Amino acid sequence: MAKPKNPHGDGGDGGSTGKPPQKHGNIDAGKGISSAQQATAQAAQNGRPGGPGGKQPNNPTNPPPNKPTPPPKPTAPPKADDIHHSDASEAHIVGGDGGRQGGHIAGTGLSKKTEFPQSWDGPKILDAAHEVTQQGPPAKGPYLTKDADGKKAWAYDYTGTVDGVTVKTTVLADGEIRTAYPPNSADPGVITNPPAPNPQPKGVPVSDPPRYSHPDIGGDGSWTWEGPKGNKIIRVVQDAQGNVTTTELGDYQKKK
Fold first, then answer.
1. 107 with 145, same domain?
2. Is 153 a member of any domain?
3. Do the Cβ atoms of 178 and 171 come closer than 8 Å?
4. Furthest C-alpha separation in the chain
C-alpha cells in the first residue's frame, strides 16, 4: 500500500520532513522553549505598527488630538487705527471677569493686583489704555495668549505714560484690546493690594475671591468674602487685627 503523502505539502515552512513548522516570523520554536518564550514576549512588547495592540507611530508633524491649533503667527502688529476696545475688554480692565482676572479700577481690592489712581474713573482708564497704543510700536510681541473666550490668540504689549502713570496694554493681533493695567506700583496714585490672608478664615464662601479695603483710598485694611455657603449667602470679614466676623445675608437656592 502506498504511503500517504506528506499532509503538510511539499516546500514551504514545513518542507518535506513531515513535522509542523517550527519558525513563525522571528519566533523559532525549534531553538527551545525558553528561546521561543523570550521572542514571544519581545514580539508582544513591540507589537505591530498600526495593528491592534501595537504601538502607533509618532508623527511630530501631527498635533495631538483634540488640541486646538493656534492661529497663524502674524507678520506685523495691527495698525494704530485698527486698535479698539470691545465690551469684553472694557469689563475686564475696569471691574474684572467675575473677580478672577482683570479689575484695575481703584477699590476693586483683588489680591496682589495694581489699581489705577482713585481719581481715574472707568472712561479715563479706558482712554489711557488706548492712548498708549498710539504712542509708538509695541514693546513686546507677537506672543501667544488667550482671548476673552479662552482661545489661543497672538498679542502685542504696548507700554506708555499717561499723566505720570505707566500703562501697559495688551492688544490682540486683530486690534482688539485685551487688557490694561498700571505695572509700576511706585507711580503716583497707583494702588497695590497685598496678598489675601493665607490661611483664610474657616467657613468662607469660595465662589468669589476676597476683596481688600485699602487704607490708601479710605479703607480699613479688612478683607471680605461674600457668597453662597450651603443654603445661605454669607459675608465673612477679617479685620486688620485678624478678628473674624460672619454675617448671614439671606437664603441661597442652588440653580438646578
1. yes
2. yes
3. yes
4. 118
Residue 210: closest CA among 192, 224, 197: 224
> How far apart are the C-alpha atoms of 155 and 148, rounded to whole Å?
12
119 and 174 in a common domain: yes
Grid cell for residue 203: 467657613
CA distance 27 to 34: 11
CA–CA separation, 104 and 213 (whole Å): 14
Contact 178, 93 (CB under 8 A): no
Residue 220 belongs to what domain range? 194-251
Q: Is 52 left (phi over 0), alpha (psi -120 to 50) or beta?
A: beta
For residue range 171-219, list pLDDT tens digits in order: 999 999 999 999 999 999 999 999 999 999 999 999 899 999 999 999 9
- 10 Å Cβ neighbour count for 180? 28
What's the rounded Cα separation, in Å, for the pair 255 and 234? 17
pTM, to two decimals: 0.72
109: alpha, beta or left? (left if phi > 0; alpha if psi -120 to 50): left
Query: Could you tell me if residue 23 is inside a domain?
Result: no
The span from the CA of 153 to the CA of 170, in Å, is: 11
243, exposed or middle or buried, with CB in 10 Å at 0-12, 13-18, 19+? exposed
On the question of a cis peptide bond just before residue 197, with omega within 30 degrees of 0, the verdict is no
DSSP helix, strand, coil percent of the chain (3-state; round to 5): 15, 25, 55
